[in-house]
Amino acid sequence: MKKVLACLMVVCSLLAFGCSGRNAAFGVVDIKKVEAEAPAVKTIKEDLQKKAKELQEQMQKETAGKSREEAEKIVQDKSAQMQVASSEAQSKLKASLETALAEVSKEKNLSAVLIKDAVPSGGVDVTDEVIKKMK
Q1: Distances (CA, A) of 81 to 37, 45, 53
Q2: pTM of whole model > 0.90?
Q3: 113: domain range?
């Protein structure tokens, strides 16, 4: 999930930065800090953990007393449901991050926002603003 978001942000930022001129201002964001502090990330993770626990409990109840083949089908079904829930959580997180980045970028008149770890020096740190805007 982290790698997908990081790659997406770098590609979008490079495209925007590359098209805007040499002296354009750019921002940087610390993804690790966003993941650790953003309320939206915490909420999404908690919801996903809750869903995983529910599916685990359902699986245990449904597989009790079943044959091996029936139990395997139930496990596969619950695993598929968990993958769907995980995918939905990633989509929510991505949308929240993209919205926050766009808002901060527009407010600060930045041509791009890059991942802080990928930038050796320079840039306006917008991490705290992104964390505040993530919903």
Answers
A1: 28, 16, 12
A2: no
A3: 26-133
